[in-house]
User: Fold these one by one.
Assistant:
Number 1:
Amino acid sequence: MAGLLVTTAFYFSASGPADAAIHVQATRVIYNGQAASASVAITNKSSSTYMVQTWLDTGDAKSMPENLPIAITPPLMRLAPSEEALVRMIYSGQGLPADKESLFWVNVQEIPPSVQTANTLQVAIRTRIKLFYRPSQIKMRLDEAARALQWRLDGQTLTITNPSPLHITFSQIQDQDAAGTGKQRIDVDMIAPGQTLAVPAQTLRLAAGKPLSFSYINDYGGITKVTDVALQR
């Protein structure tokens, strides 16, 4: 009976799992519009040589769209053990709004070396991180955008409106007691510029006039907490 060789692909958001051979050294990329390009470093943490494929998508993890306003280079590279390389994103200068951020996803797909051993399972891990293109005319900082969020409680629905031109990625949203300590929480991923989200809030002990707190992911990939957020009814 012939030997069996199977390669299985998995993808992960953020910087990827600890056992990934190719490590992406950031959880997000902020592409400032005044810069000619943006970049992220990747490193081969394994003891084998890997090929690496890179591309951008606009949110569909199964797609590989062509002719996007931002190009990624190199689309294919070879990384020796412990070798580091830069993946660069370059905006063509046309096709994206100038008054708000645009969101893309950077895909880094590792391609493992061929294995001649029979009955071997190979795992090819793909890492996806967010790329935010921030036009140069936007002067608002992310912390200002987070503070500008509008929160409204309608019955058991929490409505969040983002009037800013920036995306805000939440870590968590919590109710808040008198000591400022969060008790119950709900999970919301991200709110886009100009977007309004309606979130079921049955698990939160919220009332009009009572504060809540939330945490968001800052430009460096860390978590920033905002407390004493006023609720409107």
Note: The radius of gyration is 21 Å.
Number 2:
Amino acid sequence: MLREPEARDRTAIIELFTSPEVGTYIGGPRPRDEFERAVPEVPRRRPGLFVVDLDGAMIGVITLDRRDAERPGHVRPEAGEIELGYMFLPEAWGCGYATEACAAALDWFTGALPGEPVVLCTQTANDRSMRLAAKLGFTEVERFEEYGAEQWFGVWSSVTPSG
């Protein structure tokens, strides 16, 4: 289900980032003509970037990237935590693919960096994303205002506290 981006994903990547529905809680869709010029013929590959594949077609992307130290929301004083990000095409919403794919990405991350926390930030108005965070086991750390909207910031860890 998770794989590296390939040339065949370019059209779906453009659709994903220019979709008004997808852009609702992330600042709006990107202009299609601008994005078509910006996306290379073969999308860039890097650790922590996954295409979510269903029957040979891209239905979403998942990222695990370092959270910018300048942004609000951190669980360490030195910042730089890994942040889970995800975007899915509207036709894939409500089918459980995001839960399955994000869980697989978190499993991959646990194998690569055991015990490291992962953070997630989403608008509180994004009900689907809030439910996904809960299903994945993220716990709320704080809420703050960013990008003109209330944000929910949570943390996940593969380490179970002993007590």
Note: Residues 2-156 form a domain with the Aminopeptidase fold (CATH 3.40.630.30).
Number 3:
Amino acid sequence: MTLDFNSLTEEVLAGDRYFLARLLSLIENDDPKGLEALSLLYPHSGKAHLIGITGAPGTGKSTLVNRLAGYLRNNIAVPDVEGKNKPVTIAIVAVDPSSPFTGGAILGDRIRMRDLTGDPGVFIRSMASRGALGGLAKATSSVVEVLDAAGFDFILIETVGAGQAEVEIARTAHTTVVICAPGLGDDVQAIKAGILEIADILVVNKFDIPGADNTLRVLQSAISMGYPDVHIPHSENIPEEDTQKWIPPILSTIATTGDGIANLTDAIERHRHFLTTSGEKVRREREYMRSRMEQLLGDQLVTRFLNERLDDRFELALDKVLTRELEPRRAVQLIIENKLL
């Protein structure tokens, strides 16, 4: 069945999951029809709460996302059009490592989310990172905007387990949850890499295995150094709602059993309230959109320049660089100034 982008937009807004999946595929592939539909859907976005789940490989991110989504569905309600409470709806964007052979998502995350299969209130989309830096696929922002416009209350974004490179998630999500686990060496590495700076909530998962207490203490020490005026005596200490700045709480979970998921949900809800009442949400969204528009502008300018102005100059410059006649930066400068001979 072939639809124009206007009809595709109407079907997505009406809640049709088949056409939602089709539109997301078009957007991932930079199809013009998908981008036109996105333009029509964009005014309907801005209502969902975006939760980023990130951390090093082996910390149990996918299992935790599975548990968190189930808990949100069963315990959080929002009013429907008639004012009656209904369970929240959830979209999950699982950014998988790309297959080295096909460039497609390996889909390991989806295998670990079988508990959610068949739930009409949960939509799962796996995306290939395709080598994108920062742990996010290039089209993730657009995919999230479509899911937001489609009416999902929460969007969980699980990023590639690349550890130290996942700072980009903090720009995209409203609430960033950084997962650590004992025995992986990621506690000290995370501190060195500055990944704690992006955390709104810190979680020590797999708290039932040896070394968990030590990981907890390392994180407590790191937070105490970052916020010297705040005493953090306990791993589940949540900031007061009237605090001028948000102090990331440190929680413990066992995702395989669901232990600690209720506390994590409570922390997410408190952070959402903090963002709204403090004005931080508006500030973050402006900074994120500024960064995104600058990146998109840069991409468009480079593409236009390469397509319209280069002719054979790029290949000529490349040859000179390879023969060591020109240094790469100098070659690019000469191309831009149209002085390449």
Note: The first helix runs from residue 5 to 13.
Number 4:
Amino acid sequence: MDRKRELVDILNKWAHEYYVLDKPTVSDKEYDTLYDELKKLEEASGEVYPDSPTRRVGGEPIKGFEKHTHIARLFSLDKSVTKEELRAFLTRVQKAAEREVEYTVEYKFDGLTVCLTYEKGEFVRATTRGNGVVGEDVTAQVLTIKSFPLRISYQGTLEVRGEAVIRLSVLDEYNKTADEPLKNARNAAAGAIRNLDPKITRQRRPDIYFYDVNYTSDSLPMSQTEAHTFLKNEGFKVYPYFAVCKTEDEVLAAIKTVETERKQIDVLTDGAVIKVNDWALREEMGFTDKFPRWAMAYKFEAEEVTTLLNEVIWQVGRTGKLTPLALLQPVELGGATVSRATLNNYGDILRKDVKIGSRVLVRRSNEVIPEILGATEHYEHSKEIEKPVRCPACGSSLQETGAHLFCPNRLCVPRIVAALDHYAGKNAMNIDGFSESTALQLVEKQGVVKVSDLYNLTAEDLAKLEGFKAKKINNLLSEIEKSKTPKLDAFIYAIGIDGVGRVAAKDLASRFGSMETLQNATVEELLALENVGEITANAIVQYFQDEDNLSTLRALVEAGVSPVWSDEKKEGVFSGHSVVLTGTLSSLKRSEAQKLIEEKGGVCQSSVTAKTTLVVAGEEAGSKLAKAQKLGIPVLDEPAFLEMLEK
């Protein structure tokens, strides 16, 4: 066996353990060392095995999606929303079978259906479902996902079906640093797979759960149970819950289990899928024009409610983009009072036929924020929402770029306030005691227009602000002074380059090491980074070509702001540990606990993953604690955590 083949096999085994089994056996460093060796060997020889892990790196953007005809049609499922409809389905199956019937019950994930094709054991293509007969080729995008094999032992022609999803924890993590947060996991998954730029797909970190064998050139398998086992044995990621039921009561009990447990799992689900297990019986029952007669999707009651739309206001962000915010008649939804919901842009308003004074349908089903699905009823007094032509804050004529409206005025007050607030934030320059209201007062009363103006403030200036006494003035001036030596990644994030979140900022700092080097980076150099796509790369280059931005950066340097960067790892009691905090700590704020962990060598994570080595659980710890216990990850309560900090 040549060294390249050996490395491919080893790396694929490790990737399967990490991404599919959730049981890593080696460190990231060990994996990266062999990966780099493989890459060098491939570059030297010019040969890449079809199942090489280096194929999974996102390639260049494509111009459009090519159409592809599925070997076998991908039918959608008939749906039931009541127990009566479900019982009627089970009765129809029983009558058609005239014998004892076995059913399977699985989770119904809410994402995007994809179909993967294999020939002679090699992965050759990935497509969307499309209309069931013809889908779109998304091979380049799906290749960035690591939860499926590039090579399998089955040597015939094979089509397997799965649901592309984005984990809720991944969505939450992405939205913390994204300039434009993704609204919900379902749309995020579809948008990731159907993005023309595979690097964007990789940044959003979709996953695939496989659940069906759509076509084989041989006669296997003979049941859904066999199909589930076949997929698992071939290395495809399958969800562990899989119930086999022989009676109506067992089916209903399995559905109840799915409905109860779905809020504790990290994937958006909207129901359960019930199928006849025996494929021979499936052949007998056949299909309608749209659906198989042997399967049914049972949809759970969505967390939706109707209410009146009272008003739409337009908010101006730090980039000048206007976002419509719907003000609703307060209504209870999902255990919370909802009084507002976002609408993406004016096109979204038109598509959903939303009007002032109309009744609208609002959903909150594992989404990050409430979503208006559309209007349910218009009244005589309902009126159209006008598309703004001028900025609601400064009156400037708006510019339209793509689907969004922008205020071009850099001196627009909300833009300045948002930029100052972002710059001073905890994840940026960490100026404690600085708030949005402080920023607004500084703009209105002291004429602050750039972040560099903060370093010219005096005690006399701050004394003119409402609520500022001697102690608060001294504290804020001290914090501003302290911010002059930020970490480079925090500074890059703070200056607000469009599309650069915390993760990308850290990558940029690690790769370029200084602002001077970053300022001269080319688009090609930027695209080599994992968390930088084409749009962001161009935004970075354009940022450093803008004279206003360069003027601000020069003013910051003159004020004494000097970012520092060091890749050196801190040593301490948490060295080598990836730690997740969950619940409420009585003695520390979460941000304080995270800082202490990092100061003592640890890395803080937002969710429990296979990389997590410790979980700190405070009061009212929830699903993260449950997942940690399930995975056998050590858990520290607050006293044990505090004791560890003292070591």
Note: The chain has five domains: 3-56, 79-299, 304-405, 413-558, 578-645.
